[in-house]
Q: What sequence folds into this?
């Protein structure tokens, strides 16, 4: 029995998505080729496994950021929430001597709670999520300093089962979990009613309201999910470094937004891809590592990375006709 053909609109959407993935992969491969030619020790298994084991925290945070942006919001608190949840996890293990499952539960629970507060305040009073999450950024950072008494906390090898590379693979379980969450996030966005609601809310919230759909629970849920993923990022961070730094994650929200933008998610909401955002993470990480290996200074790395982000935004705007629509 032959399968029914896909509607032309759906086929066109999938073709556009595949073309976007292909373009990002080409950019990634070009960067790898460029830095492999410019640096003697870039194209090695050690380089790639090291980079892969560094990205789980940023990856899971980027998953949450993508979903929030698709719904038309933004979450600037994720870096500080990661620091707060990492601080709680580290102190719970090293100072309070909690069992690991309970400490991990507290880590994720606090992350989800911060996201829940962000969502409720944003939705209940119809406030810009930019402002609300900026306030939570300060609250969570202050909480991280209080929990750790503004000092680093050594945790040790208690989280090696999460952060230590598997000997036969060279990749950590944290990286494998992060990739699994990328796939789950993409399926959530494209194959579930919740994902369709996120796209609809980000495209036209008023139309969603007039159609009789309650958008508030969906918006609160996506901010809660973003906070929970930031909490998981905190656990990955502690597992990788085997310690807690209350200054961890400063600027991480900007890296997550940069990855999402490079991946083509619209800052206006209504369009995005978790897989493309993950490719954006890899592009940023390879770019920064490659610049470091060729001897670029920190200011130079920031200038180049910022230029790439602006170029990605401009290209996305041109591709989707924003200038023409704005002029009209």
A:
């Amino acid at each position: 029995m032959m399968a029914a053909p896909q509607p032309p609109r759906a086929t066109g959407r999938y073709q556009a998505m595949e073309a976007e993935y292909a373009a990002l992969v080409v950019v990634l491969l070009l960067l790898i080729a460029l830095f492999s030619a410019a640096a003697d020790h870039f194209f090695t298994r050690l380089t790639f496994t090291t980079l892969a084991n560094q990205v789980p925290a940023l990856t899971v945070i980027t998953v949450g950021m993508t979903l929030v942006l698709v719904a038309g919001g933004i979450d600037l608190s994720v870096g500080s929430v990661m620091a707060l949840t990492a601080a709680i996890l580290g102190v719970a293990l090293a100072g309070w001597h909690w069992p690991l499952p309970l400490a991990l539960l507290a880590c994720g629970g606090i992350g989800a709670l911060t996201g829940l507060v962000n969502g409720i305040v944003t939705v209940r009073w119809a406030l810009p999520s930019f402002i609300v999450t900026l306030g939570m950024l300060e609250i969570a950072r202050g909480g991280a300093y209080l929990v750790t008494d503004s000092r680093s906390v050594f945790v040790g090898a208690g989280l090696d089962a999460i952060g230590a590379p598997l000997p036969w693979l060279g990749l950590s379980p944290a990286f494998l979990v992060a990739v699994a969450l990328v796939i789950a996030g993409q399926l959530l966005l494209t194959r579930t009613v919740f994902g369709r609601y996120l796209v609809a809310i980000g495209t036209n919230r008023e139309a969603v309201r007039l159609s009789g759909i309650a958008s508030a629970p969906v918006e609160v849920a996506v901010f809660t999910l973003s906070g929970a993923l930031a909490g998981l990022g905190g656990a990955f961070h502690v597992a990788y470094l085997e310690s807690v730094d209350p200054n961890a994650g400063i600027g991480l929200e900007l890296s997550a937004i940069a990855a999402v933008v490079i991946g083509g998610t619209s800052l206006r909401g209504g369009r995005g891809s978790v897989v493309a955002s993950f490719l954006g993470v890899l592009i940023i990480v390879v770019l920064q590592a490659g610049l470091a290996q060729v001897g670029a200074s920190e200011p130079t790395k920031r200038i180049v990375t910022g230029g790439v982000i602006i170029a990605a935004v401009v290209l996305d705007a041109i591709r989707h006709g924003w200038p023409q629509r704005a002029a009209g």
Notes: Strands lie at 153-154, 243-244. The CA atoms of residues 77 and 137 lie 4 Å apart. The chain has 15 helices and two strands. The first strand starts at residue 153 and ends at 154.
